[in-house]
Write a structure and sequence with these properties.
Strand content: 25-35%
Strand order of the largest sheet: 5-4-3-2-9-8-7-6
Largest sheet: 8 strands, antiparallel
Order of helices and strands: HHEHHHEEEEEEEEHHEEEEH
Number of strands: 13
Low-confidence stretches: none
Number of helices: 8
Distance between the termini: 46 Å
Radius of gyration: 18 Å
């Protein structure tokens, strides 16, 4: 007997993200869903640091994100978002990418990022709810060298060769101050389920993976601000670019912060640890 593909519970998902708008597969709906998701479902790697592992099977991801009100990273969040878009009738492709945020072009990151390409009226749009503090709050038109304003920042797509003479790649960039910075690199190559399994295995288990070595959380707000956590430093970045930072000093403070700012309620006594954490494992 062939296993039937998992169909997401759209009513439960929309309740989870507080969405009450149209279900027609339009650009407006896509943008509304992006904003609702990224401002409700936090990007987080808690299960990796807690030694629980990450399962990206559709039903398991839905239970974690929707029923248990948890967050996750790209394979979980974009994986579920893609399934939701497909259920709504969008033409969607799963695209693989290399995250390049704060890395130089002479470094080649692993192709361990997943996002989606959506076709609407003959145009291609990019949607990404799983790239941490840079997750999109509106879709990007796949058009080179065009500055595109989003509710949180300005983006663009360029196409360049990493190595002179090599086949050019697309680069999704964000404008920080007056500088364009790479978010991710991609070629529009699709990312089938087996490649996601391999990428997820590396990301969640390899000793050098940043998700094994750092605490990472992010959540956007509708007013244009963003909240992030890197290890024990909590940052609130206002729409104008000003930032307020707070240092988390104890495991108990961290649990309080997760509950207050990210709506993540973990049992009392949960001890989240990463290499270099300012408290004992």
């Amino acid at each position: 007997m062939t296993n039937m593909p998992h169909k997401p519970d759209l009513d439960a998902y929309f309740k989870r993200i507080g969405y009450t708008g149209s279900r027609e597969p339009t650009l407006e709906t896509l943008n509304d869903l992006l904003m609702a998701h990224v401002t409700t479902v936090p990007f987080e790697n808690l299960d990796v640091l807690l030694g629980r592992g990450i399962c990206i099977e559709a039903a398991v991801v839905e239970k974690k994100l929707v029923v248990e009100h948890r967050g996750g990273y790209c394979f979980e969040q974009n994986g579920h978002f893609i399934r939701v878009l497909e259920a709504l009738g969008y033409k969607v492709k799963s695209i693989s990418a290399r995250v390049r945020w704060k890395s130089t072009r002479d470094v080649t990151p692993a192709r361990t990022h997943l996002f989606s390409r959506v076709e609407l009226d003959g145009q291609w749009w990019l949607a990404d709810v799983g790239v941490g503090g840079l997750s999109l709050t509106s879709a990007l038109l796949l058009k080179e060298m065009q500055e595109q304003a989003t509710p949180h920042d300005t983006r663009r797509i360029i196409r360049e060769s990493v190595v002179p003479g090599a086949e050019p790649s697309y680069f999704h960039q964000v404008l920080i101050g007056s500088t364009w910075m790479d978010v991710c690199e991609f070629t529009l190559e699709e990312m089938p389920e087996i490649d996601r399994e391999v990428g997820n295995w590396f990301t969640s288990t390899h000793p050098t993976s940043k998700f094994r070595n750092h605490l990472l959380l992010a959540l956007a707000a509708r007013d244009g601000s963003r909240l992030t956590v890197l290890d024990n430093v909590f940052t609130s970045r206002e729409p104008g670019g000003q930032s307020v930072k707070f240092t988390v000093r104890t495991p108990e403070e961290l649990l309080e912060l997760l509950a207050e700012h990210f709506a993540l309620s973990l049992p009392a006594g949960t001890r989240i640890w990463w290499p270099g954490a300012p408290w004992e494992k």
